[in-house]
Amino acid sequence: MTKRVVILISGGGSNMVALLDSMKGDHPARPVLVLANDPAAGGLAKARARGVATAVVDHRPFKGDRPAFEAALQDTLEAHSPDIICLAGFMRVLTEGFVQNWQGRILNIHPSLLPKYKGLHTHARAIEAQDTEAGCTVHEVTPALDDGPVLGQARVPVLPDDTPDRLAERVLEQEHRLYPAVLRRFAEGDRRAIILP
After folding, report:
1. Is residue 108 a known part of a binding site?
2. Closest by alpha carbon to 77, among 12, 109, 32, 107?
3. Which one of the listed residues 59, 110, 123, 139 is annotated catalytic?
4. What is the pLDDT of residues 98-137, one digit of tens each?
5. Which of 83, 91, 120, 151 has most Cβ atoms within 10 angstroms of its Cβ?
6. pLDDT at residue 64 above 90?
């Protein structure tokens, strides 16, 4: 049975585009909605241009009331009955209660080789630590931030003259390869981790 996928975004949606463009032909999943927490998110127009329904649950009117925001998010998600939720640059931290409602069905991509560098500024932190490699991770979402079972990783070398921006560009290229590969496998019911060369 084809899995129904909802993608959550906050911005331009480059990982969303990679996911949408991969879900074609014999893919075991199909997109049913792209949902943003910002009505100005550039990814909304990109999703509509690909024929995918869009919705917005703007977090700002909730003025820091996360449970109320998440209740509205929950209502919108339930209306589309997703089997899988993909966080693709969704810049809101989700509460334990919300995550538990969807446990085992939410994926996230993070720009580091988890468990290293949870949270923000991952590329600067990798350079400051003089790491020789960096990369990205797709993982199942659990109540702990940037935690949960690793479903895939891709690595890139950290070059001697790297800046956080240059490193971020190379990692993002790998994110666009990794996330679609993990989604396909996950939709097929296979949760073994993928390591891309």
Report:
1. yes
2. 32
3. 110
4. 999 999 999 999 999 999 999 999 999 999 999 999 999 9
5. 151
6. no
